[in-house]
Q: What sequence folds into this?
């Protein structure tokens, strides 16, 4: 998953936030992370000594984050109705996170590969599909083991934010991506 989503808080920022999460976990019962992205802040909360994953709520609206979140929380990805459209073929529904993430990555790379090196990468994605999917599954399972117990919803940040804003025992970590133009293109 780390190879797909590029918006990320740097390691020094995550280390600092891990210490902050450790301190606030003593006084708050709920950590709410809308726009969870690739779950970096959830990992930072996990590395703090006092924070329990059961107190952590995450959400996002991106397909990437939702596939990862559904895998971590063992929700049925079939409910997302992710469809693969290839040319004139009948659309096919995808039922697992590694296949869906692989197809998302391949689609992005096929559309954007301009250099010789990137075109070779696309060829490798196609030729070694099973290897790439296995790597994705290992990464997903590692994250699942690390973040077991948190909750995830495919939910708009404003709805999630509003559900927690009046809770005096909730901390909301809100850091929506600010990639000029790129994030809007993704949707």
A:
């Amino acid at each position: 998953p780390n190879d797909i989503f590029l918006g990320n808080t740097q390691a020094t920022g995550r280390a600092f936030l891990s210490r902050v999460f450790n301190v606030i976990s003593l006084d708050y019962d709920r950590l709410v992370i809308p726009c969870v992205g690739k779950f970096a802040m959830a990992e930072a909360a996990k590395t703090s000594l006092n924070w329990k994953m059961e107190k952590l709520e995450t959400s996002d609206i991106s397909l990437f984050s939702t596939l990862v979140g559904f895998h971590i929380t063992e929700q049925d990805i079939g409910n997302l109705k992710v469809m693969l459209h290839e040319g004139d073929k009948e659309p096919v529904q995808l039922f697992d996170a590694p296949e869906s993430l692989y197809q998302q990555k391949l689609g992005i790379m096929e559309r954007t590969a301009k250099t010789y090196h990137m075109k070779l990468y696309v060829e490798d994605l196609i030729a070694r599909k099973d290897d790439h999917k296995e790597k994705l599954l290992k990464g997903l399972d590692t994250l699942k083991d690390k973040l077991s117990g948190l909750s995830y919803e495919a939910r708009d940040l404003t709805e999630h934010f509003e559900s927690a804003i009046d809770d005096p025992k909730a901390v909301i970590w809100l850091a929506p991506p600010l990639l000029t133009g790129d994030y809007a293109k993704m949707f």
In short: The first helix runs from residue 11 to 24.
